[in-house]
Design a protein that fits this description.
Number of domains of chain B: 3
Oligomer: heterodimer
CATH architecture of the largest domain in chain B: 3-Layer(aba) Sandwich
Shape of chain A: globular
Structural class of chain A: mainly alpha
Radius of gyration of chain B: 40 Å
Number of helices of chain A: 18
Largest sheet of chain B: 6 strands, mixed
Order of helices and strands of chain A: HHHHHHHHHHHHHHHHHH
Distance between the termini of chain B: 112 Å
Number of strands of chain B: 17
Strand content of chain B: 5-15%
Strand content of chain A: under 5%
Number of domains of chain A: 2
Structural class of chain B: alpha/beta
């Protein structure tokens, strides 16, 4: 026997590695993230870099304070995944100190105070996002308009260069001669539900050039690219199909029913999929293994409930998007769902003869 | 099947197969060792034959040191119902019977018979061959005599397995040739090289159990073995009802319960055995050994072993005499390479580390696996569980390995049991897929051992409680009897006239005095039981939780101890009588000492004042004694 030998069976080489799983999640994020940079400018990239640096720094700091080895914790890339997901969900104009606050809350409080990777009951990225959303609602809803000529022309909007984005994030000032109104635009979800609140009908709302085929222009393509990454993860076995499919079904089913009932007041179901963070949430956030259900049946229930809660909050809640709230709500229900959905063990139950 | 096969159809419809949850497609690595044809290992000069090579009680040695033994001679008899015999694998001399390291996951030593071989390999007298259609009892006895155990690795005594309990009927016999664990190819080689022997054994088992169907299951990664068996099935005679079933390669389809599920769709009940659902499984190598025992009268004294791994010089399969030391075998397979990570007994999924090359090969050893560094890379330290559920996806028992892990880690044994810890077959799938490289199976083994220890403690505590309850009941009963006797006596006394009563009391007091004399050391008045009553002689139980009589060692078992309660006999005072007796004894002793010239030291060298005090006290004492003797004199009738 030599060093590095396993003490007891199985001795066969291990097939998976946590850092490789995380790396694949990061790879799967790339197409969608690039699409976001394409439509929403450099701010997305700057946020990603900032969030990553804060997250890795925070993780290293806590591990030192806890007297644990730093490198394995950084090396498992889980903090990086949290940072990237967080940066993708916040507006590209978010001041740097809010990114810092959000990440500090996510990594230090939500993740490490509960014991670090594997022990946190809540999804850190979503907890950080919600923390900022309820504390700084204005900064958290300042979305830029997608860089699509028709949209920009219709509202006479400008786009920000790399330097402009940097300045905005670090100093909070816009380039001379530009106002917030000249760069920002409502997100499709915001637009849809504020118009609905003003008793507009769906056909009236959809006349705006903001709309594409299913959701908002630009936004729907971001969703498509995230979908591609998500499907790749399922194909690679990084995530199971259950949670994403359940989330999408959980949102499509009620959306479809209500749309059939009143198409004037309820948008076509596909709108819910391609607007807001539905796809990102279904494939990248709800599937966070630490905070999700682990039993097959439980995953279906968990996903469907996230979809349904998202739909309900979008239509009747105060916030335009609700994926983060739905995920956090179901995070806390996951252990109970797991408990009641244990699979039938081999040799037990229906075939039991003795 | 939707439609029955046509009468003219040349081949029957393929047997429907089921699947089990989870499992892994592992690189099978069998080609490493399966290409080289089967060879026989030369005899070692020293054979180490453990008396326990099977599940159950160790065999009882039938030979002594210095005895000459012939090949195949019975040297260890099965002890009890769950045991197996042991035979000499070659001729030679017994040189020792002692504890030696044996191949077992525990790493402990066990009693072994050491035989120095003489090289002649001369057979002892063997029983005659049984005919082609042997009497079932004769065949069962032959299997028992031959010491045949399951050769797939578990080493369960075959004779025990084949003893079907009354009321159960085996309808399906399954011959396990799946050999699902990577690297191992000994069954593959046996099926390729000796298919006829296997089928002969299957035929015997079929007739013995009177089964309706005989299924030989082989994983589809062994096409040569399948072809060889198919050919033998086509050529052989009297093979009705025997069917070769090719199953998809998926670890652990060779597990008994998994294989039954694949072939029949049935699940063996948890903690049950296949016989409960009318199925019996035997390894194909076991069938071959049964054929050998029946047709040639040869006991199980050798087996086929795979020597493989990328750190093994020349991977191959060898037929090896049981008891051959592992180091001798390694030499036959080209020795161990320099990049050896570790040598295993068994396969990479369920084997265990071999830490002593002097260990012998036993009936349950099917593989020696020398893993290189590249084959078994260092998994590194275990990281935190990220609850990914890959383990649950892989678990062939549909368990939740992750939850089991949390509970085992927390030593929450009740929860671990509630999550069906004991349905874990320790196949290792969960640990292999775990991205955090947590040694999951190690946790389950630990938790199982803890549970078994807990059960044992519970059983012992329950036993002790029952004994205590029985003792308490017995003592209570005795106390009741004693009280009843006392009551009877009192009633009898009450009926007698007063003078007789007083006489009885006096005699009772008289009997106590010598008793006190005998038991109490001179001068110690505290040990005098008389007058305190029999009941007061019992020590008071601490805390009062235990009934007063429980655990009192001095409690006499005979009721009716001499002595009468003081309240009942106001006429006589036995206490005073006892004090008088004690004083008398003390005075006698003092007188005796004075005669010897010894006076109490405390009265020597006294001041006049002290002397006066002593004299005054003596005077008072004398007065008291006089008064007492006067009063006791009055009490006498």
């Amino acid at each position: 026997m030599s060093r590095g030998a396993v003490i007891s069976a199985p001795f066969a080489g291990r097939i998976n590695r946590t850092d490789r799983l995380m790396l694949q999640v990061i790879l799967a994020l790339i197409p969608g993230a690039l699409a976001m940079v394409w439509y929403f400018g450099w701010g997305v990239l700057i946020n990603m870099a900032l969030a990553s640096a804060f997250a890795l720094g925070g993780e290293a700091l806590v591990m030192r304070l806890r007297g644990r080895p730093v490198l394995p914790a950084i090396g498992d890339l889980s903090a990086l995944v949290t940072a990237l997901l967080f940066a993708i969900t916040v507006p590209p104009t978010l001041p740097w100190w809010l990114t810092f606050l959000g990440i500090a809350f996510a990594i230090l409080i939500v993740k490490q105070l509960y014991g670090g990777l594997g022990y946190n009951p809540f999804n850190p990225a979503m907890a950080g996002y919600v923390f900022l959303l309820v504390s700084y609602p204005v900064e958290m809803t300042n979305w830029l308009a997608p860089a699509i000529p028709e949209v920009l022309a219709a509202h006479d909007l400008a786009i920000l260069s790399f330097v402009d984005s940097l300045r905005l994030i670090f100093t909070g000032t816009l380039p001379p001669g530009l106002t917030w109104d000249a760069v920002s635009a409502a997100t499709p979800l915001d637009e849809m539900f504020s118009q609905l609140d003003h008793n507009s009908t769906i056909p009236e709302i959809l006349k705006s050039p903001l709309w594409g085929d299913f959701g908002g222009r630009g936004w729907e393509w971001v969703g498509n690219w995230f979908l591609l990454g998500g499907l790749w993860m399922i194909w690679r076995g990084v995530i199971s199909w259950r949670i994403p499919v359940a989330v999408l079904a959980g949102i499509l089913l009620p959306a479809g029913l209500f749309w059939l009932f009143d198409p004037q007041a309820f948008p076509f179901p596909a709108f819910h999929i391609f607007a807001g963070g539905t796809i990102l949430g279904a494939f990248f956030i709800a599937t966070d293994p630490v905070t999700a259900c682990t039993t097959p049946k439980g995953q279906l229930i968990y996903g469907a409930a996230i979809g349904f809660i998202t739909f309900v909050i979008r239509h009747w809640g105060g916030y335009p998007d609700a994926v983060a709230f739905a995920v956090l709500l179901m995070n806390i229900a996951a252990p109970m769902i797991d408990h009641y959905t244990q699979p039938r063990v081999f040799g037990h139950g229906r075939r039991e003869q003795t | 099947m939707a439609s029955p096969p046509l009468a003219s159809s040349p081949r029957p419809a393929p047997r429907p197969l089921w699947t089990f949850h989870g499992g892994l497609h592992l690189p099978d690595e069998k080609a490493l060792s399966s290409a080289a044809p089967l060879a026989t290992a030369p005899l070692s000069p020293l054979l180490v034959i453990p008396l326990q090579q099977h599940i159950g009680a160790p065999a009882k040695p039938l030979v002594g040191v210095g005895d000459r033994v012939g090949k195949g001679q019975l040297i260890g008899e099965a002890q009890g119902s769950m045991s197996a015999t042991v035979h000499a694998p070659s001729s030679g001399t017994v040189v020792a019977i002692e504890d030696r390291p044996v191949p077992h996951a525990s790493g402990l030593s066990a009693p072994c018979i050491l035989i120095e071989t003489d090289g002649r390999d001369a057979w002892a007298e063997l029983p005659p061959p049984l005919g082609p259609r042997p009497d079932p009892e004769a065949l069962r006895e032959r299997i028992r005599w031959a010491g045949i155990v399951g050769l797939g690795g578990a080493a369960f005594p075959s004779s025990v397995k084949l003893r079907v309990p009354p009321g159960q009927r085996i309808r399906t016999l399954i011959l396990n040739g799946a050999e699902c664990e990577p690297y191992i190819s000994c069954d593959d080689r046996l099926m390729r090289d000796r298919p006829g022997r296997i089928l002969a054994g299957v035929r015997l088992l079929r007739d013995l159990l009177q089964v309706e169907a005989c299924l030989i299951a082989v994983e589809d990664n062994k096409p040569e073995a399948i072809a060889a068996l198919r050919q033998a099935l086509a050529a052989g005679e009297d093979l009705a009802g025997i069917e070769l079933v090719v199953i998809p390669t998926l670890y652990p389809s060779g597990g008994e319960k998994q294989l039954i599920r694949i072939l029949t769709g049935q699940e063996v009940p948890s903690r049950g055995i296949p016989a409960q659902i009318g199925i019996l499984c035997q390894n194909i190598a076991t069938a071959a050994a049964i054929a050998e025992a029946a047709e040639e009268g040869k006991p199980l004294i050798s087996r086929i072993i795979t020597l493989t791994g990328r750190a093994m010089g020349q991977p191959r399969n060898l037929e090896v005499a049981l008891g051959t030391p592992i180091k001798d075998l390694l030499a036959l397979a080209g020795g161990l390479g320099p990049d050896l990570r570790q040598l295993l007994i068994g396969g990479p999924m369920m084997g265990f580390a071999c830490d002593d090359l002097g260990m012998p090969v036993t009936k349950g050893v099917n593989c020696l696996l020398a893993l290189s560094r590249a084959e078994a890379p260092d998994p590194g330290p275990a990281l935190a569980c990220i609850r990914c559920g890959a383990c649950a996806e892989a678990c062939p028992a549909s368990l939740l390995p992750q939850q089991l892990y949390w509970h085992a880690r927390a030593r929450d044994l009740d929860q671990a049991r509630a999550y069906h810890l004991f349905d874990c077959i320790e196949c290792g799938c969960c640990a292999v897929v775990c991205p955090s490289h947590i040694p999951l199976v190690q946790y389950y083994r630990f938790a199982k051992a803890e549970c078994l220890a807990q059960d044992r403690d519970k059983r012992q505590a329950e036993h002790a409680r029952q004994r205590h309850d029985a003792k308490t009941a017995r003592l209570e009963r005795l106390e009741e009897e004693r009280k009843a006797n006392l009551r009877k006596k009192k009633e009898a006394l009450a009926e007698k006239p007063a003078p007789a009563r007083a006489a009885a009391s006096a005699s009772a007091a008289a009997t106590t005095t010598p008793l006190a004399d005998a038991s109490a050391p001179a001068g110690s008045a505290s040990a005098i039981p008389a007058g305190t009553g029999a009941g007061a002689g019992e020590p008071v139980a601490p805390g009062g939780a235990v009934p007063p009589l429980a655990g009192s060692p001095g409690t006499p078992d005979t009721p009716g101890t001499p002595g009468t309660p003081i309240a009942e006999t106001p006429a006589v005072d036995p206490k005073k009588a006892a004090i008088a007796a004690a004083l008398q004894r003390a005075a006698e002793k003092k007188a005796a000492l004075a005669r010897q010239g010894q006076a109490p030291k405390n009265t020597a060298d006294l001041t006049p004042a002290q002397r006066r005090q002593v004299e005054a006290a003596e005077a008072r004492r004398r007065e008291l004694q006089a008064a007492e003797s006067a009063s006791s004199g009055r009490e006498q009738p």
